[in-house]
Amino acid sequence: MRDHKEITLRSVEGFKTQLLAWAQQFEDIVWLDSNQSLQPHSSYDCILAVDAFTGIQTDSDNGFKKLKEYQSITNDWIFGYLSYDLKNDTEPLKSQNFDGLDFPDLCFFQPKKLFLFKDNTLTIKYLNYVSGEVDTDLESIETFSLQNDPSHTNDIQIESRISKKYYINKVSTLLSHIHRGDVYEANFCQEFYAHADLNPLETYFKLNKIAEAPFATFLKNGDKFLLSSSPERYLKKVGLDITSQPIKGTTKRSEHAEEDANLKTTLESDPKERSENIMIVDLVRNDLSKIAQKGTVNVSELCQIHSFKQVHHMISTVQAKALPTISAVDIIAATFPMGSMTGAPKISAMKIIEALEDTKRGLYSGAVGYFTPEGDFDFNVVIRSILYNASKSYISFSVGSAITSKSTPEKEYDECLVKAKAMRSVLEN
After folding, report:
1. Are the beta carbons of 310 and 422 closer than 8 angstroms?
2. What count of Cα atoms within 13 Å lies in the side-chain half-sphere of residue 72?
3. What is the largest distance, in Å, between two alpha-carbon atoms of the chain?
4. Positive or negative CA dihedral for 230, 371, 282, 96?
5. Cα 158–222–154 angle (5° rounding)?
6. Can you list the alpha helix ranges (DSSP code H) found in 151-270?
7. Mean pLDDT score, 334-347
8. Domains along the sequence of the chain with CATH
9. CB 122 within 8 A of CB 6
């Protein structure tokens, strides 16, 4: 079905830049880049999928059923995203908040052309009927003129969907739910937005340079774009092995080594942050138990601090062996949305945050990734991301934090600003 070609690259990073620029001619693009982060559970360092041969777009109504059918019939590599609002497909929930972006709830495509990076080896997999274009494409990529102006500034005026005062009132209401026992933890999010035109590729390069995140993504679906510097893996499957890596706990970094070390130590020992993380780990364990062989769910990493360019994160790793009879899409449906973006108990948390938030989440706090022909998959969590609808000239990014009984609304607001820093800086400068 696909022809394979392997080449050894002398300059991986240079070729990657040329490749993503060359890819902009296509209507459908998924670019997944680890930024050489050496993630222990990653199969590839970078992937590019372009040029849809077949595809599926749908709303949340029977979304997972439609995806399962498409994935089964295609029996090939497929790439795309799952929006947060697919929650409405698995539970009796609704999404009624304002939506300025108008993305489909689910979108996947089968690429004609696929590029897989591992170390300095590039594996190219083209569908058979376009395999004759490989050499011509390689020549075009290597000679492609990058029309990127690093000195260009966006000068976009970012607005908050809600004021600080309004945010604090909302979190106070959420805390009252927690104190009543309606929920133990809930991830509350807010949107920042602008009405402006944007160069998506240029903006992605700037964002990626700031963050160099291990689950960076450039996604294009016609006039709709995702530019992501996500640090978080949602779920990965290799054979029967399932891995989830939720993040809960964040602090800023410092340019001064001693202060930075102190910030890291403080985060590691913070009882509130640890309790947040452990609650989500328990939720993930419960989700995985629905699809796992008995006795195989385990926590291989608990509350470990991982350092990124702008922030320190507290990350745990939960693993399991899937039941051999369950499909890849059913594994995702049983665990979606990811616990790190909802709260616990999950359904109660989703109901409460839907009532309190002012913006439909859409692709934010959803997932982008791929399925292989063997039924394996790997998906990130869409956070630290800019979303853009070019036809509507609408730019959006959202940030959130986990609210527990120990939360202080003002501190949670400050945490949101820390998380927003990278996106805001590339849009306003």
Report:
1. yes
2. 11
3. 65
4. positive
5. 25
6. 164-180, 200-211, 257-269
7. 94
8. 2-428 (3.60.120.10)
9. yes
